[in-house]
């Protein structure tokens, strides 16, 4: 993800069939964060080795989350990604409301010694 007006990442994700695309967060660093979801394919041809793979393509499984990390993810020690990833891994669906709620406590003050997650970053 980039602040460059020519960056077409979010449009490409949408063109590929993603739904529930949310772009932007009230967190610094990471205000250009993107969350989207791909619906899992309902019919997959071919043999699938293992139960984990068959569950991945189950029509009853939840959508696959896509996280677009802004350019700050390359240089900032802690970003909105650190706040969102654990929630996504726990199965929580992140949308506009959840990203807006991160605005309270959503400013990393870049302490000389980073103590994340024992700090006010991302805390309500």
Please tag this protein with its features.
about 120 residues; alpha+beta; three-stranded antiparallel beta sheet; 4 helices; about 25% helix; about 10% strand
What does this structure look like?
With 124 residues, the protein is of the alpha+beta class. The chain has one domain (9-101). It is built from 4 helices and 3 strands. It has helices at residues 9-15, 51-56, 80-89, 96-101; strands at residues 19-23, 34-38, 64-68. Strands 1-2-3 form a 3-stranded antiparallel beta sheet, sandwiched between helices. The longest helix has 10 residues, at 80-89. It is globular and about 45 Å long. 20% of the residues are buried. The model has no long low-confidence stretch (mean pLDDT 83).
Terminal CA distance: 27 Å
Numbering strands along the chain, what is their spatial order in the largest sheet? Answer: 1-2-3
Q: pLDDT average, as an integer?
A: 83
- Quaternary state of this entry equals single chain
Q: Low-confidence spans: pLDDT under 50, at least 5 residues?
A: none
- Secondary-structure element order, as H and E? HEEHEHH
Q: Which strand-content bin applies to the residues?
A: 5-15%
- Give a quick account of the main beta sheet: strands, pairing sense, barrel closure: 3 strands, antiparallel
Helical content class: 10-25%
Number of helices: 4
Number of domains: 1
| Number of strand segments | 3
Query: How big is the Rg?
Result: 17 Å
Going by helix content, strand content and strand pairing, the class is alpha+beta
Any idea what the shape is? globular
